[in-house]
Write a structure and sequence with these properties.
Blueprint (H helix, E strand, L loop, with lengths): L10 E5 L11 H10 L3 E5 L21 E6 L12 E5 L1 H10 L7 H11 L2 H23 L4 E4 L6 E6 L2 H10 L5 E2 L9 E5 L3 H12 L3
Parallel strand pairs: 1-2, 2-3
Antiparallel strand pairs: 3-4, 5-6, 6-8, 7-8
Helix pairs in contact: 4-6
Length: about 210
């Protein structure tokens, strides 16, 4: 990535953990970008609650050109409120304030989010359950002949490679199971993205894939 930077490059976007691959960027690689590139670096941490590392919010004081994005859509399960956050140096936030809507978060959203924050322990328990199920799901997928590769994940989903993703996707839909077909995404040819569910949901998926002929 740094090799592609030239005098015209103003912003670098990093997604960590990444979607749809699920992998988390190595901290040293991220710091190398921040130390080398003097433009704005934006890190999307939508899935950070599922990663085995602290947020890059801890780097904001050392890197005033860093912007960290987070959301209530993933671990908090509140995609419908459409609420995300940008954390950055006060100088950058002042620029944001000149272009954002004056009342960009409505009162109902504020109340809903505050209620959720008061029950943060419930979210932590939910994340812990998902992490345990992610491990079980990945191991189960790895035992299926249908699955050629199970990619390591630091998110709430697992990316797998199969020989005929379109056929497998259609087969699962017919079984009432919806996954994400990422076959047309560059570098993800042959891949399906599977969201981690409950123990019962994951078993239903594994049983369906085991029965695929």
């Amino acid at each position: 990535m740094l090799a592609a930077v030239d005098e015209h490059t103003k912003v670098i976007f990093l997604c960590s953990p990444n979607n749809p691959t699920g992998n988390d960027l190595e901290a040293e690689a991220v710091k190398r970008v921040l130390d080398t590139f003097k433009g704005i670096t934006v890190i999307d941490e939508a899935y950070v609650d599922f990663a085995d590392r602290p947020s890059y919010l801890t780097l904001l004081e050392d890197y005033p050109h860093l912007i960290v994005l987070q959301t209530f859509s993933k671990a908090w399960g509140m995609a419908s409120v459409r609420l995300g956050m940008a954390f950055a140096d006060p100088a950058i936030i002042r620029y944001f304030n000149t272009v954002k809507y004056p009342y960009n978060i409505n009162l109902l959203t504020q109340r809903f989010v505050f209620e959720a924050l008061d029950q943060a322990d419930r979210t932590r328990q939910w994340v812990a359950m998902l992490l345990a199920e992610r491990s079980v799901l990945a191991q189960g997928l790895g035992r299926l002949p249908l699955i050629k590769t199970v990619y390591p994940s630091d998110a709430n989903f697992v990316l797998v490679k199969v020989d005929n993703p379109n056929a497998v996707y259609t087969y699962l839909v017919d079984k009432g199971i919806v996954v994400r077909n990422r076959h047309t995404v560059s570098l993800c040819e042959g891949c399906l993205r599977i969201t981690v569910g409950t123990s019962e949901e994951n078993k239903q998926l594994l049983d369906a894939l085991a029965a695929y002929a």
